[in-house]
Amino acid sequence: MIWLVLIVAIVALTTFWMWKKAAKKRKFFEDKGIKVNKPRFFLMTMYKLLTKQMGIVDMIQGLYNEVSGGEKVVGFYDGNTPILMLKDPDVIKRLAVKEFEHFQDRRDFINEEMDPLFGNSLFVLKEQKWRDMRATLSPAFTGSKMRLMCDFIVEIGEQMAEFIHREAQEKGPQVYEMKELLSRVAHDVIASCAFGIKVDSLTNKTNEVYLAGKILSNFDGTEKMLKLILYRFFPYLMKVLNISVTPQKESKFFRSLVTDSMKVREQQHIIRPDMIHLLMEANKGKLNHQQNEVDSAGFATVDESSVGWRKSGRIWSETEIVAQCFLFLLAGFESVSSAMSFAAHEICVNPDVQKKLYEEIKSVDDELNGKRVTYDILQKMKYLDMVVSETLRMYPPATIVDRECNKDITLELYDNFNFDFKKKYAVWIPIYAFHWDAKYFPDPAKFDPERFSDENKSTIDPSTYMPFGIGPRNCVGSRFALMELKSIIYYLVLNFSLEVTEKTQIPLKLASSFGALQSERGIHVKLCPRK
Q: What DSSP state is assigned to residue 138?
């Protein structure tokens, strides 16, 4: 009996202590005139994320929609850190663009000492090192460099079409789980464009390169998600225990893949216009922006800021170069393959969209008269760009981005409303929530490429449409991602009719995932060769 009383007492005291702490945090914002989301029990939230009772999208949408009434910012706490969720496009532009000098970095996460690959990637670098790496990488992702790599992707698109045709001839038209199919296609694109190797992962399903890439890019597994959470809150403990986020075996294989290729190229003077070559050139200071290069890969393209246009001058280590290839692998394997599979679903379940898209693609293919499609031709295809733009609205690669204040500063957020930011305070930009807000995109659940027609796209506020982020810290690889999306969709729709099956989920529902957006039951599409 005494143990029961003791347990009840401990629970009661803990609950009271947390209630008092939550009340204090709530008062912090209320005293400043900012509405607050209801307090959440941190451990319960983490438990629901780990057990997939709740996904990152559920959490973001809950925070975004919980306080309604025209608020431009909403306050909440992440542990002991005050967070402002930005709900107004002008406030986002103010902090992410105009005040970028004070909100340059992401929050503390993983550094190079904890995980050499992830910690040295552009995604998590901070301060001057991030600026130098951005300036180094930026010239590698310009339109002129994409033109050189486009043919590699087109070759993979043709390879994909040949594989599906072959299966249809042998077994009849097949139903494919598109994420599985297109993740293999995306992997082959990365293998070719980044590492200079040809791997047919559709035919050779268990090749070592694909299996290693799949393990390294999977951030939604419970084990890796738990590691990320522990790194977030107990970084030094994880360092003492020598626990790495990336699996050691696959990391070692991947590192060797990159470094061996670099050494062979140096020794044999091999030049192939892929990512390793561009990074090697950039590290030697031989890669610079062309002065008058203005290029758009479509409506979703993000522009490079002055940060990327300057020259770094820094010489990078082998590990730091490998880390950027690692980031390229993560983004290409997971984010791009997800976007391609979501696009396939929407094209499949919207026959009017598919018909119009096929007509544009067929017209272009007829004009090519047997020649391969090129980067410049892809950019001229307006309806293809509209379909891709709408896909990225409904299913953005990044659901949310954060920015951390780097110094104490008082800023006017809006309408003479000032807020005292302290160093380490942070802001959240809920990209997914903006893309699904009917105030900015009417009937957001409807797949409607016409939103991005020449007549309509001028009405879209760029600060409400952010598939590749916003401000100088946007996605450096947006042109590459768009080129890959358009190339693969081009060959998919040109060669096959995408048809609904009994397994196709309509409407599509998202799984409760922690990382990139995933479908609840997979994306099942029947691919029937066109006559």
A: G
Angle of CA points 82, 431, 142, to nearest 5°: 115
User: Look-up: residue for tokens 């599906």?
Assistant: 164
Full DSSP string of 415-455: TTEEEEE-TT-EEEE-HHHHHT-TTTSSSTTS--GGGGSTT
As a whole number of angstroms, the distance between CA 445 and CA 25 comes to: 35
DSSP code for 508 = -
Residue 338 to residue 331: CA distance in whole angstroms? 10
Q: Among candidates 253, 250, 245, 254, which has minimal Cα distance to 223?
A: 245
| Cis peptide bond upstream of 507, omega within 30 | yes
Query: For 30, what's the count of Cα atoms within 13 Å in the CB-facing half-sphere?
Result: 9
Give the closest residue to 109 by CA, choosing from 133, 81, 134.
Answer: 81
How distant, in Å, are the alpha carbons of 76, 342, 367, 520 from that of 505?
35, 12, 36, 9
Residue with tokens 């993740």: 183
HEC string for 363-395: HHHHHHCCCCCCHHHHHHCHHHHHHHHHHHHHC
Give the helix/strand (H/E) hosting 17.
helix 2-30
Segment 357-372 mean pLDDT: 96
Residue tagged 């209630």 (tokens): 19
Joined together, the tokens standing for residue 357 give 């898209």
Whether pLDDT at 220 is above 80: no
From the list 488, 495, 505, 498, the residue with the least C-alpha distance to 175 is 498
Token code pair at residue 197: 């190797």
Q: Sheet containing 496-499: which strands, arranged edge to edge?
A: 174-177, 524-529, 496-499
pLDDT digits (tens, 9 = 90+) for 165-194: 999 999 999 999 999 999 999 999 998 988
The label of the residue with tokens 């009271």 reads 16
Question: What's the full length of the chain, in residues?
Answer: 531
Give the rounded distance of the alpha carbon of 290 from its chain centre: 27
Closest CA to 194 of 159, 149, 255, 135: 149
Q: Which of 187, 224, 150 is nearest to 483 (CA)?
A: 150
Cα 194 to Cα 273: distance, rounded to the nearest angstrom: 9
Distance of CA 98 to the CA centre of its chain: 23
Tokens of 445: 């659940």
Q: And the tokens for 454? A: 């020449």
- The alpha carbon of 243 is separated from its chain's Cα centroid by a whole number of angstroms, namely 25
Please give the backbone phi and psi of residue 401, each rounded to the nearest 5 degrees, phi first. Answer: -130, 150
Q: Report residue 290's pLDDT band, with 50, 70 and 90 as the boundaries.
A: low
State the pTM of this model. Answer: 0.91
Q: Who's near 178: CB < 8 A, 6+ residues apart?
A: 340, 341, 344, 345, 522, 523, 524, 525
